[in-house]
């Protein structure tokens, strides 16, 4: 994280020194385009090849690219093209790196510790923002952009052996089947808009997945065990088919179904799950996937489905999220919260400080208050590890944070603004960390790359679009109305969480 902070400072400084302000803006925006466009594909890669392997390779590529540009700047001097190429490569690799990093915690620690991991991650982000900025500025002041890129590359390089030393836990027996606390079982359920997930005529009951806390069981047919059903048929149990299992495939035998698909289960049509996210079966001794270094079981160890298998994995992952009783409304709540939050707390705060005459120091104090509040929320989770009634806390934190965002535009002075910003940071940090923890605990580990990719796409791809819109709206109508509208959008996220019964009642594992 510190290396990333230094990298962005070096890139922005070098771009400003080399070209015009508009050219510098283009260079800074170049990395955002491939990151947003390729993020979903990066989630598929993380699930197919395993998060550990993907994060090590992608981090190594990031390090090599930054150090290569640093060496080029030392030898030739700055130029826009090398900076643009670096930004393009960095953004492209980030599209793979971020989903893989998001999928790692569930494979490193137990479900009961994932909330604590989110808290520690939040503290790491705050620490990196505090240390990375001054360190990058110092490197630029001493040796220019080349020195700053070198420092960034070396910091990223330090993370590579640390990632190599990580050993992952084996995927649980039910991973990749769609089983989980919020998995669709074809029984009563509610979608984002209250619609049940099981379609008409889809099988329920004895052969449907029953939601549980990692100890789910699939109804037996003919006395076969869960492992026999997974290994023998290579089928998931209702994750992408509204509760139907692959055993109902026209009475064909397991061997016929495998052979009929070219040795691998590559399709997920007609309600049958075809080896999604790490459970694709080939014909290599009947093993489900291959075991990589570090004990990591990855997808694709057997035969891969024909043609567009990666595209099919993406479709299956998106379907899994859409039909999940907790993840579907949670994604919508995250999207609304980010859309309403990013504009006011970035460009909106700058314009508010200018309008009120607070100056740069006043704006810095308000941002500092927000940082303290967010850090306190992360510390709470890191120390406590589990917050009871997580779903209800998310609802109230979203609604309370929305009220605070709307109030920020009407406070009389800097001190009051700092207090309101501290409250926003506390509530937004708490709801954000709990949303991240629920994503980790509710999602099947075999889908976490794709789940993280969707969440990251919302936060890093769509939400920043609200910044130019907020700036234009403030120019037309002023800060007050825009902050109120943004607060209403944030509040909609809380309303979604409140109306989605399964999300509202969601709990973090003990």
For this structure, the quaternary state is: single chain
Question: How many distinct domains?
Answer: 3
Structural class: mainly alpha
Question: Mind summarizing the main beta sheet?
Answer: 2 strands, antiparallel
Unreliable segments of 5+ consecutive residues: 184-307
Helix content: 55-70%
Q: What is the CATH H-level superfamily of the largest domain?
A: MFS general substrate transporter like domains
Backbone CA Rg: 24 Å
**Strands, total number:** 2
CATH fold call of the largest domain: Growth Hormone, Chain: A
Can you list the strand order of the major beta sheet? 1-2
Report on the structure:
By secondary structure, this protein is an all-alpha fold. The chain is built from 18 helices and two strands. The protein has a two-stranded antiparallel sheet. The protein folds into three domains: 2-164, Up-down Bundle (Growth Hormone, Chain: A), CATH 1.20.1250; 170-310, no CATH class; 327-504, Growth Hormone, Chain: A (Up-down Bundle), CATH 1.20.1250.20. The two termini are 29 Å apart. Helices cover 66% and strands 1% of the residues.
What's the arrangement of secondary structure elements?
Blueprint: H1 2-18, H2 21-30, H3 32-49, H4 51-76, H5 80-103, H6 105-108, H7 114-164, H8 226-233, H9 254-259, E1 290-292, E2 296-298, H10 309-323, H11 327-356, H12 359-384, H13 390-408, H14 414-442, H15 448-462, H16 466-477, H17 479-499, H18 501-504
Antiparallel strand pairs: 1-2
Helix pairs in contact: 1-2, 1-7, 2-5, 3-4, 3-5, 3-10, 3-15, 4-5, 4-7, 5-15, 7-12, 7-14, 11-12, 11-15, 11-16, 11-17, 12-14, 13-14, 13-17, 16-17
